């Protein structure tokens, strides 16, 4: 008893770093109580923001009983410190939360998952997802499984409009090819969760890289999801909460407030699933004498010029630039007396439109 009292008299940072696990556990418990009633400007909150490295060791505490209390203290700290606390500490804590928290006892897993969800809620999801993704390539299957499970919970809570899905979807073939059956099973769970939000639109990003038997298994799991209504975001970022409160204060959310929310979830336009390609500077590849050859009196010269243009612009993504002359030339060629010239000119315009995407609108 005397030893515990001695530990309790130490400053909290010293308790956090003590060699004795009982001292650390006591420090975490005391910190939890203090953070629960603290304000962002209180000295204890400021101290643990400034000494954010304390959390790195705490969430990875080697003693399972102490670690569970550490995760509880960290969550209480995040609630008290808000966005600043999340930003200052996440680079020190996410790794330990995944490696030690998500693989620990049930209570620790629950607290660790809440830590990740809180870190996202208080700021934005991208930094947390970026910290988790490397674990999908880890040597230890249990860490891959833990990371996949965390991602499933994150998408379930925040949805694919708030949390960018493409980086995760593109990694699915890798985890489906893993030798460990638990990894593959958890990959299935994540894929079904993503399918709830994205439906068939997600398939082009990864489907062709799966085995046929995996495709069939997933299609069976997708079938009941198709009958479900479009899911709604269950947990809002603090920025989204503030926007909703502001809208409510100004009366923007009336009787149809909930319906508007549902309508937003039904639209796929807000989720960008276009594959990412490196934009090509096609203007540099267009023959310098293109305009002269396009004005030739011989249809074969005109077609050859357009064929070379097509070879240059037939790429997935095009760098923005001055395409006015090319578009005008192609538009004129689409009225050519020779059908072969017309066809190639139309194909060139289509390629430029697809490559430039939204930037092409100025030429319409």
Automatic annotation (TrEMBL):
| Cellular component, GO, one term | cytoskeleton
Which is one GO molecular function term here?
microtubule plus end polymerase
Q: Which UniProt keywords apply?
A: Cytoplasm, Cytoskeleton
Q: Which Gene3D superfamilies match?
A: Leucine-rich Repeat Variant
Q: Where is the TOG domain?
A: 1-231
Q: Which intervals carry biased composition (Acidic residues)?
A: 255-271
Q: Where can this protein be found?
A: Cytoplasm, Cytoskeleton
Name under which the protein is recorded? TOG domain-containing protein
